[in-house]
Design brief:
- With 247 residues, this protein is of the alpha/beta class.
- The protein folds into two domains: 119 residues, ATPase, nucleotide binding domain (Nucleotidyltransferase, domain 5), CATH 3.30.420; 108 residues, ATPase, nucleotide binding domain (Nucleotidyltransferase, domain 5, 2-Layer Sandwich), CATH 3.30.420.40.
- The protein has seven helices and 16 strands.
- Strands 1, 2, 3, 4, 5 and 9 form a six-stranded mixed sheet that branches. Strands 12-11-10-15-16 form a five-stranded mixed sheet, with helices on one face. A three-stranded antiparallel sheet has the order 6-7-8.
- Strand 2 and strand 3 form a beta hairpin.
Length: 247
């Protein structure tokens, strides 16, 4: 069994577990801690260390980040402390953990897992993976190849970032009913379809485990729409995949 550790850093929670890359599943039950507030680099690094040390892991660690990541450097930070912008995050985690570390965009990680093991497995053409949580993450694939860091949650919708209207956190914050929220998600999906014409849209993030409450309400679309198979574990699995690929 090929086991690598994956950590998924979100705006509200940090979760991690060893991953069985042969099966594309968590090898042990994940451990989750709340994302520190404020989510400064130092505080988040400490929280990640707590998650990794809990398993006594020795070896490569893959980590997701809710923002643009290029060459291990974090370029944006929409839902975490702005002090992350411009940092060599991979080097920071590697120094703190004393282990090889690979960092990538959180939705890209979830997308890689879904395209390899989940709902997008062996699916050609244009596939879009959308994660609804604190914000809206996106991973765009063309014939299985990732177009990294698309960050489509920041497309403008009704004069503001789309994730400020249609994220899962917005539904909870404003106590929206499922039909009310579905109307907003429908409007957002219509926008991304106009721009990218995907054949398949995979809905992930924490809300995907309740997909039966809102997916049937989404009607204004052309693409096939399915829930993520790996649900909210996809980011952890994708992070581990990236770490294994980096060696």
């Amino acid at each position: 069994m090929a086991t690598v550790f994956g950590v998924d850093i979100g705006g509200s929670g940090i979760k991690g577990a060893p991953v069985d890359l042969d099966a594309g599943a968590l090898a042990q039950e994940r451990h989750k801690v709340l994302t520190p507030q404020p989510s400064s680099p130092e505080a988040v690094v400490e929280a990640v260390g707590e998650v990794v040390r809990r398993f006594g892991h020795q070896g490569p660690v893959g980590l997701t980040f809710p923002g643009v990541v290029v060459g291990g450097h974090t370029r944006t930070a929409a839902n975490v402390d702005k002090r992350w912008i411009g940092l060599d995050a991979a080097a920071m985690f590697q120094d703190a953990l004393g282990l090889p570390a690979t960092v990538l965009n959180d939705a890209d990680a979830a997308g890689l897992a879904e395209l390899t093991y989940g709902a997008g497995r062996a699916h050609g053409g244009v596939v879009l993976v959308l994660t609804f949580g604190t914000g809206i993450g996106s991973a765009l694939f063309v014939d299985g190849a990732l177009v990294p860091n698309t960050e489509l949650g920041h497309l403008e919708l009704r004069g503001k970032d789309a994730e400020l209207r249609a994220s899962s956190a917005v539904r909870e914050r404003h106590d929206l009913s499922w039909p009310q929220w579905a109307e907003r998600v429908d409007e957002y999906l219509e926008l991304v379809e106009r721009l990218f014409s995907p054949q398949l849209i995979i809905i992930g993030g924490g809300v995907s485990r309740k997909h039966e409450k809102f997916l049937p309400l989404l009607t204004r679309r052309e693409a096939e729409l399915v829930p993520a198979t790996l649900r909210n574990d996809a980011g952890i699995v994708g992070a581990a995949m990236a770490a294994a690929k980096a060696g």
